[in-house]
Amino acid sequence: AATKHLHAKKKFSYQDKPVKQLHKALNDVISDAVSAGITHEVPNTLIAYLKRDVFIFSGMKTYAELKEASQLLTTPAGEVKPYHQFSEDVKKVNSTYNDNYLQAEYQFATGSA
């Protein structure tokens, strides 16, 4: 939904519903990953810090991913790409953000905790 929204509007804002939905989805996935990785009792204060860190990270990740995706909207000649090409390009970006950055955030959050 966020990709189609970005392609249609040619820009994004955190006030846009698809962007908020993407942020929530990313935050939920990262929060679940951090929670699943903590297999022993953790003080509530530490859990609160982890959740805040995950929320901030997912917001920054959402912004960075959409910013990078917005730069893929046009060809080198400045023409708007057809949606199918834009979607394929964004899928490559999505893989980087969802696979690589998720592991990095998990390691950072649990390591710093």
Characteristics:
mainly alpha, 113 residues, 4 helices
Brief summary of the model shown:
With about 110 residues, the chain is mostly helical. About 75% of the residues lie in helices and about 0% in strands. It contains four helices and no strands.
Strand and helix map with partners:
Layout: H1 2-9, H2 17-37, H3 44-70, H4 83-112
Explain what this protein looks like in three dimensions.
The protein is mostly helical. It has 4 helices and no strands. It has helices at 2-9, 17-37, 44-70, 83-112. The chain is elongated and about 55 Å long. The termini are far apart. The mean pLDDT is 79.
Helix content: over 70%
What oligomeric state do these chains adopt? single chain
CA(first)-CA(last) distance:
34 Å
User: Would you identify the regions where 5 or more consecutive residues have pLDDT less than 50?
Assistant: none
**Strand segment tally:** 0
Number of helices: 4
Please outline the major beta sheet: none
Mass-distribution shape: elongated
Portion in beta strands: under 5%
SSE topology string: HHHH
